[in-house]
Amino acid sequence: MDGVRRAKAAHLFGHARIRAEVVDSNGQSLGECDIPFDALRSPKPTIRRITSADETRWNRAAAGAQQTVLPYPPIIVEPCGEESVRIEDVGLDFGGTP
Questions:
Q1: What is the domain range of residue 54?
Q2: Fewest beta carbons less than 10 Å away: which of 16, 36, 68, 69?
């Protein structure tokens, strides 16, 4: 999934869905649609917010998420297995000890 940061920010700011381009395992586009967050899974369990570059990327995603209509390009999603993490369960890594 390309767009974990944007999806997490949008979810945290109360959006119910996000625009996504669905691709198959070969990267071939299957089209775009609005996907509810409970249907999204992330390949990574956390979003880094450790370096200033990490924080800049997060702040950009969060700024867009505060708007009524999300200004983002579609995130990229593909079918995945159960080993992935629900967007609501993706954590924010500030570099501290868990």
A1: 4-83
A2: 68
The model's pTM is 0.91
The angle formed by the CA atoms of residues 78, 31 and 71, to the nearest 5 degrees, is: 90
- Contact status, residue 84 vs residue 4, Cβ threshold 8 Å: no
What mean pLDDT is reported for the chain? 93
Contact 60, 10 (CB under 8 A): no
Within a domain: residue 32?
A: yes
User: Is residue 70 one of the residues assigned to a domain?
Assistant: yes
| Domains identified in the chain, total number | 1
The pLDDT of residue 79: 84
Other C-beta atoms within 10 Å of 44: how many? 13
Position 6 pLDDT exceeds 60:
yes
